[in-house]
Amino acid sequence: MSKLLKWIAIIIGILLVLIVVVIVATSAKAIDQDDDVRANHGAGASSVDPSYSGLQREFPALNAPADNPSTAAKVALGHLLFFDPVLSENDDFACATCHQPDLGFSDGRVTAMGAHETELARNAPTLWNVGYAKNLFWDGRLQSLEAQVEMPLTHPDEMGVGDTAALVA
Question: For 130-142, what is each residue's pLDDT tens digit?
Answer without folding.
Answer: 888 888 888 888 8
